[in-house]
Amino acid sequence: MNKSLRIFAPATVANLSCGFDILGCCMDNVGDEMVISLTPDPGVKITKIEGANLPLETHKNVAGVAVEAFLKEYNKDVGVTIEIFKRIKAGSGIGSSAASSAGAVWAVNHLLDNPFTPNQLVKFAMEGEKLASGNAHADNVAPALLGGFTLVRSYNPLDVVKLNTPKELMLTVIHPQIEVKTSDSRSVIKNNVSLKKAIQQWGNVGGFVAGLFTEDYDLIGRSLEDVIIEPLRSILIPEFNAVKKAAITNGALGCGISGSGPSIFAISKGQETANKVANAIREVYNKTGLEFDIHISKINNEGIKIINQ
Ligand code: HSE
How many CA atoms does the CB half-sphere of 144 hold within 13 Å? Predict the structure, then answer.
């Protein structure tokens, strides 16, 4: 059994327009690194954090609380140390906290010879999300743990389903360098939804899932519509409408807010279109004077990966 593991903990795009809190997918080339080790002294210690100003105290750190939830159910004396090398900025909308909590529980599970399935790890990682945003949503941690596209069919009882990944789908993600806290972004959402909007939204969720399985790219595109959350949250994101228009005009299948923002994602068929979309949205953002990053990524169907042992 290996006692120490270095992993890649990927960024994720949650909601995917129509699926607030239930849909997400995993990025391939953006993510954190973590080194997780088993130690003889029982308990969880965060020994190093680079790239972000985050708490080392276990109970205040998303990776710490996720591993503690894991060990509580595992119910044997285990010592764990966690080193975190953050590359995903907090408050970026591409699953920064999820990468840390999912990465930590995945690695501990691996080091202990997989007592839990990836699906069973979701609930432990959700404890990290609860600490980060006050809400235990699973739409970032599930795709990080399972890879590809995931659906949270139900929260109570928790039922997470891995969906199909059509090979040619590509993500273009723009991350404006402003921080939008998930808790703030959740506070602008209304608790009630009209039946008319609910019908539109669940039609789109069904269409999106069907489109993934039948690899019907046009159906995927038609289903990337959010009539409930996007109209309320998009006002928090500079030039959201202009970015969306530029993405669609340049061939994206769909475009929306990544998670709770401020990142914006576009999904395209093929690398060439994804590049074209990136250029078009770069042009929009160049005019704002704001700093930003743009990522072009395949869908990572594997999720968390071992870098070396
Ligand atoms: N579903 C969550 C939200 C994702 O939109 O608040 C946060 O990344």
Answer: 36
**Which tokens in the block code for residue 209?**
């899932």
Query: HSE (CB half, 13 Å, CA atoms) of 223?
Result: 22
How many other CB atoms are there within 10 angstroms of residue 241's CB atom? 11
CB of residue 92 inside a 6 A radius of ligand 1 = no
Give the pair of three-digit tokens for residue 233: 């949250």
One pLDDT digit (tens) per residue for the chain, 309 residues: 459 999 999 999 999 999 999 999 999 999 999 999 999 999 999 999 999 999 999 999 999 999 999 999 999 999 999 999 999 998 899 999 999 999 999 999 999 999 999 999 999 999 999 999 899 999 999 999 999 999 999 999 999 999 999 999 999 999 999 988 888 899 999 999 999 999 999 999 999 999 999 999 999 999 999 999 999 999 999 999 999 999 999 999 999 999 999 999 999 999 999 999 999 999 999 999 999 999 999 999 999 999 975
Does 140 sit in the ligand 1 pocket, CB within 6 Å? yes
Dist CA 144 CA 98 (whole Å): 7
Distance CA 58, CA 68 (A): 8
**Candidates 33, 127, 129, 230; catalytic one:** 129
Total-model pTM: 0.96
Provide CB contacts within 8 A for 209, sequence distance 6+. Answer: 151, 163
* CA neighbor of 298 nearest in space, from 93, 145, 148: 148
Residue 283 Cα to ligand 1 midpoint, Å, equals 27
Nearest to 244 by CA among 260, 256, 226, 232: 256
State yes or no: is 214 an active-site residue: no
Active-site residue, 83 included:
no
Q: For ligand 1, is residue 182 a contact (CB within 6 Å)?
A: yes
Phi/psi-derived region of residue 251, left when phi > 0, alpha when psi is between -120 and 50, beta in every other case: left
